[in-house]
Amino acid sequence: MKPIAQTIDLVKYYGKEGNLVKAVDHTSVTIERGKFTAIVGRSGSGKSTLLHLLGGLDRPDSGKVFIDGDDIYAMKENELARFRRQKVGFVFQDYNLLNSLNVWENIVLPIGLDNRKVEKDFIMDIVESIGLKEKLHTRADKLSGGQMQRTAIARALAARPAVILADEPTGNLDSRTELEVMALLKKCVSHYGQSLIMITHDETIAQMADTVCVIEDGKVVAAE
Ligand SMILES: Nc1ncnc2c1ncn2[C@@H]1O[C@H](COP(=O)(O)OP(=O)(O)OP(=O)(O)O)[C@@H](O)[C@H]1O
Ligand SMILES: [Mg+2]
Fold first, then answer.
1. Domain extent for 165
2. From the CB of 20, is ligand 1 less than 6 Å away?
3. What is the SS3 assignment for the chain?
4. Structural domain total, the chain
5. Residue segments in the chain with a per-residue pLDDT below the cut of 70
6. Which H or E run includes 11?
7. 1 three-class SS
8. Percent of the chain scored above 70 by pLDDT?
9. Whose CA is nearest to atom 8 of ligand 1?
């Protein structure tokens, strides 16, 4: 099976000579399909920069990123934007929900923006397994943090992305809610065959992953 994501000699530096930050430094990594891959490493080691490059949110200085077999930075900007909407689900620490919309509206919004058909049964299945059925008509700003993050995860899953990229998605949650959200993300991998790449600081969470990828000074130093 071809890998879900691959970087080849990927480079992203910030700043100028004398003050150069090698955020991603000649990194080549292959990430397996249908698995939960955790990215760990100290603060400032380049985890978010790498994740943004994997999701087509930024452009590298050099090197390549393949997602689901496609060379994403060979694409023009508008092509890349469409690719991102259709193939990549993002889950960030700060949910990014629209407060004036309810849970259901938030979940289906990206599908609508993309002029795609809303697959009601599939989405209701996600909503039920994610425990949001009772909250479908609740405005986003009336939800707890855990419910907001579950809505954000449901939104990511509903668009049937090839890969979900998550940057410390449980960083703002208490430990019980964190475990609930993690169980859910794990289920997405086992139940829906979703590929999940997730940055975490948390050792317990990293232990839940199929593969752990350790980043140091912009380089992948170990994958186990
Ligand atoms: N837009 C930017 N402009 C300048 N420097 C940046 C920018 N984004 C990141 N950096 C620098 O690149 C390095 C890697 O940052 P990155 O955010 O990828 O680290 P991280 O591993 O995600 O850290 P954390 O665990 O704190 O989130 C850091 O030194 C950071 O200061
Ligand atoms: Mg980060």
1. 5-223
2. no
3. CCCCEEEEEEEEEECCCCCCEEEEEEEEEEECCCCEEEEECCCCCCHHHHHHHHCCCCCCCEEEEEECCEEHHHCCHHHHHHHHHHHEEEECCCCCCCCCCEHHHHHHHHHHHCCCCCCHHHHHHHHHHCCCHHHCCCEHHHCCHHHHHHHHHHHHHHCCCCEEEEECCCCCCCHHHHHHHHHHHHHHHHHHCCEEEEECCCHHHHCCCCEEEEEECCEEEEEC
4. 1
5. none
6. strand 5-14
7. coil
8. 100
9. 49
Q: What is the pLDDT of residues 111-168, one digit of tens each?
A: 988 889 999 998 998 898 888 999 999 999 999 988 998 999 999 989 889 999 999 9
Q: What is the CATH number of the domain that holds 187?
A: 3.40.50.300
Q: Whose CA is nearest to atom 1 of ligand 1?
A: 14
Choose the residue to mutate in 11, 20, 21, 24 for probing ligand 1, maximizing ligand atoms within 8 Å of C-beta. Answer: 21
